[in-house]
Design goal:
alpha/beta; single chain; 6 strands
Length: about 160
């Protein structure tokens, strides 16, 4: 595991792809799956605040620069998932690692899964305790929902039992 879970910073994400379940521990900002509306919201806010175009260019940049932290992928969906997971492979975690981390960690809040992203069904479930609104930034044709989802995790992948 490259990153250790940390409350709302490095989050635990369950991913279903091709009927296979995997865990990832990644920086939280990788999971705003559609960055275009997020970028447009920031751009609108900058303009409403009266920021100059020079300041916008310097601080926010264009859409490509805004997406650069996520390997240049504007939208994570079934079309871009292979590239995304190829780049994010270092963040893959196995159940045994998470179970070990869970057993030794005193503060359990940051260790429970934050997201379940099901590429087969095109749905994202968020149980993020902070207002990061992952469920509001899903690709077109997907469903984003804020709800508890641990009942959807396969029993052999539940590291907190």
């Amino acid at each position: 595991m490259e990153l250790c879970p940390e409350y709302c910073k490095n989050i635990v994400v369950g991913v279903v792809r091709n009927k296979t379940f995997e865990w990832y521990v990644t920086p939280a900002d990788l999971w705003n799956m559609d960055l275009v509306p997020l970028y447009e919201g920031y751009l609108r806010w900058y303009r409403e605040q009266g920021r100059s175009q020079k300041r916008i260019d310097n601080e926010l940049g264009d859409l490509e620069r805004f997406c650069s932290y996520r390997y240049g992928i504007k939208v994570i969906d079934t079309d871009t998932a292979d590239l995304f997971f190829e780049k994010a492979a270092r963040y893959r975690a196995v159940t045994a690692e998470l179970r070990e981390w869970f057993d030794i960690e005193d503060d359990k809040d940051g260790i429970y899964p934050t997201l379940l992203v099901d590429f087969d069904r095109k749905v994202l479930y968020s149980d993020c305790p902070e207002p990061l609104y992952f469920e509001d930034h899903v690709p077109k044709g997907w469903t984003g929902e804020y709800r508890k989802f641990t009942d959807l995790i396969p029993d052999d992948k539940k590291y907190w039992n």
